[in-house]
Amino acid sequence: MVEAKGNPHQTKIEAERLTEKLKDDTLEAWQRRKIELRLKLKGEGWDPAKKLATSSMEKIRLLNAEFPEVWTMKRLSGQFKVSQEAIRRILKSRFQPSESHTQKREKKRNMQIKEYKNSRLDRVQKTK
User: From the CB of residue 85, how many other CB atoms can be counted at a distance below 10 Å?
Assistant: First the structure.
């Protein structure tokens, strides 16, 4: 991986090496995509700006599994407004949260909804 932290000269040398490697016509699509992603991220880890909820990721997997010819990676990325790389990673991943984790998250979400409704109710009562 290209080191973001460390000697900037080494990072530049690594980037030049990867750029040269991209010129190779014998690279397969996955190899080319991997090199392009390494160059784009500049050694930083994968940290997308938009993170999807677990339910959205489940919908993506379901749509692609049921109708792969209709719900392609390109169409899914447009529908969910994330990059094709994010869709590719979601489809590749098989992570399933534990039942206790899911319950905790659901409880927290319900509390947030309750607090939001109470704050809205307070605002309405103050305006009367």
Answer: 17
